[in-house]
Design a protein that fits this description.
alpha+beta; about 300 residues; about 30% helix; 15-stranded mixed sheet; 19 strands; two-stranded antiparallel sheet
Amino acid sequence: MEPLLVIRNSDAGTDDEETLERGLAVLRAATSVEVAATADPGELNGVLHRAGSRTIVVAGGDGSMHAVVSALHRRHELADRTLALLPLGTGNDFARGNDIPLDIEEAARVVLEGTARPVDLILDEVGEVVVNHVHAGAGAQASRRGARWKERLHSVGVGKVNLGKLGYPIGALLSSVRPPYVRLCVEVDGQRVVDVDEPILMVAVGNGSDVGGGTSLTPDADTRDGMVDVMVARAVGPVARFGYAAQLVRGKHPERDDVLYLRGSTVSISGDAFYCSADGEIYGPERNRTWRVEPGAYRMVLP
């Protein structure tokens, strides 16, 4: 087994550090492991500079995965790299969507025994990456509100279930009360599927299936199929909003008549000012955004 470089967030809490040590014990029993802690992009860039040909193991959640992939993309090294993941935290949507076990020791065994497979990436028009998911409208508002609930519930557990993963559904429900309606033109592969004369609740572009700690916003998305899944929710009436939120929790919302669910390689939205949530990071306001999929942009060790 070739040596591994494990990159972790130096701001990780005590619980995450203890969990990581269990995973590292599995790795160290099989190969040489260097662990590097980074706190900012400069430190991360320095670690990547000395990575050599080693498999880079990201110890963290979607935000950590996004940071490492973004840094490698900026360095023009992503296509030549193999990554793996030891999921930490309460979200872990990218891990869940790629069938990486959330148990740290099982995930470590995947690092050792799994197969490096090509994984897709989403790029926007200015070259910024999206590893897992980007959405606009009420979804971004749900992420903003859900982050507060996720933080409040992070330390609360019932048996082996951490209640932090309820943050996004709670945020979605709160956003359904006073949602940020937007009027947007949505185009998928150049075909207009929604025009600005129709108010919508949200638009989601999924490379992976889940957001917010296990909410399947684009349940059929697959990071290795060379496409993105696009979900447009038009549930703008009071009853429809609550119905949409209730079915969203169960992953059944694509069955609704007021939901469009499509697949494509390029997605553009424009119109009213809107905020976006990309891999959990919120930015905006925006007027125009375009995303495209880059098939097989890098390799990921998967089960």
